[in-house]
Amino acid sequence: MREFYEFIIPYLKGKTLLDIGCGSCRDVAFFTSLGFDVECVEPSIEFRKICSKKDSSIKIYNQKLPHIKLSKKYDVVTLIGVWMHLRKFYYVKAIENLKSLLKRKGVLILSFSTKKRDGFDSINTKNLKFLFLKNGFRLLKENISNDSLDRKIDWVTQVYILDKIT
Questions:
Q1: Were both Cys, which of 18, 46, 118, 122 would link to 74 (CB 3.0–4.6 Å)?
Q2: In terms of pLDDT, which residue wins out, 25 or 62?
Q3: How much is the pTM?
Q4: What residues make up the domain containing 109?
């Protein structure tokens, strides 16, 4: 994870961060150590319980992309190991949902595997970038890295900024 964190640190701006699909809240301590007010979205009751045990002060919403309804907007939204859980027919709705959660010039960080495996569809990064660009995002940086658990998959990390709110 160190390589991943080093890659995204230059793009972590502002004060508020929403971690969508936070899982066991592995990344929350890192984000809070940087001074972010972190809130999370996690549909799994088991993971929400784990997060609450780690830090009972964390606000965790029981919601799921692409149907997240929150009243506030965030400086940064992260989806780490989440996008491959989405079916392709939800991509546009999910991107629109993410736009509704970000402040203008807010940063979106996606990290996902691209290879078809264990119930996950393959992800065409070129098509995904096109969908984000078409919906008002601009790609700032992209990185491809090996899996830290030595599985035969690569991870793509994309950092976007929301340029246009329509």
A1: 18
A2: 62
A3: 0.92
A4: 2-162
